[in-house]
Amino acid sequence: MSKIRLHRVLPFSKRLISETVLSGETVVDATAGNGNDTLFLAEQVGAAGKVFAFDIQEAALVATAERLGELTVRTTLILDSHANVDQYVNEPIGGAMFNLGYLPYADDKTIVTKPDSTITAIHKLLGMLKKGGIITISVYDGHEGGKEERDALLEYVKTLHQADVHVIRYELLNQRNNPPFLIAIEKVRDFVEVVQISNLEFK
Predict the structure, then answer these.
(1) Which of 51, 66, 102, 155 might form a disulfide with 75, Cβ 3.0–4.6 angstroms?
(2) Is residue 2 part of a domain?
(3) Which region is the signal sequence (predicted)?
């Protein structure tokens, strides 16, 4: 059987993170959800590392804690918006992951990520990110409000200076039913401010 080189979005996101995050580093799961990315990150950073996982739904953090099991000791679960990440994380990070949209299998699919909080979180995390670190953002636009978040996010990343970061969009073009696509941001030099997000209009 031939080896698959063109991965789906979520496996490719994890591949990028696994190539940049080192054991012992601090990382952020900006959208804990059911804990899949949180568990992956906890395994990546090892016993000496730390994961900060955010979600605005208590049910998501309960599910994440159950999935983590004994690796919960490496993780701080935070019931708050990822837009407030700087209130909890005050050290450099090796990477961060976003999985936008709504909580999978949730009864209420009207609770979704929003463009203003998503972009604010990314902006703050870029300031914390190590040189060579990567932020991955899995974007779903098939739900109500998804297209607005997608468009605002794409507008934002296009304002990032090419000398500061590299930005890619990765997607499989022959997939049906509004498949996700990936935005990955690699920090290529140290900087303080990326862009004045106050100048952007969130819809």
Answers:
(1) 51
(2) no
(3) none
Average pLDDT over residues 30-51: 96
Nearest to 41 by CA among 95, 3, 82: 95
Please state the pTM of the whole predicted model.
0.88
For the chain, the three-class secondary structure string (H helix, E strand, C coil) is CCCCCCCCHHHHHHHHHHCCCCCCCEEEECCCCCCHHHHHHHHHHCCCCEEEEEECCHHHHHHHHHHHHHHHHHEEEEECCHHHHHHCCCCCEEEEEEECCECCCCCCCCCECCHHHHHHHHHHHHHHEEEEEEEEEEECCCCCCHHHHHHHHHHHHHCCCCCCEEEEEECCCCCCCCCCEEEEEEECCCCCCCCCHHHCCCC
Tell me, yes or no, whether 7 lies in a domain.
no
Report the side by side order of strands in the sheet with 50-55. Answer: 75-79, 50-55, 26-29, 93-99, 129-139, 181-187, 165-170
Contact between 26 and 88 (Cβ < 8 Å):
no
Is 6 contained in some domain? no
* CATH code, 96: 3.40.50.150
- pLDDT tens digits along 147-193: 888 899 999 999 998 889 999 999 877 777 777 889 999 999 876 45
* Residue-wise pLDDT tens digits, 63-84: 999 999 999 999 999 999 999 9
Domain-embedded: residue 116: yes
What is the token pair recorded at 16? 């990028």
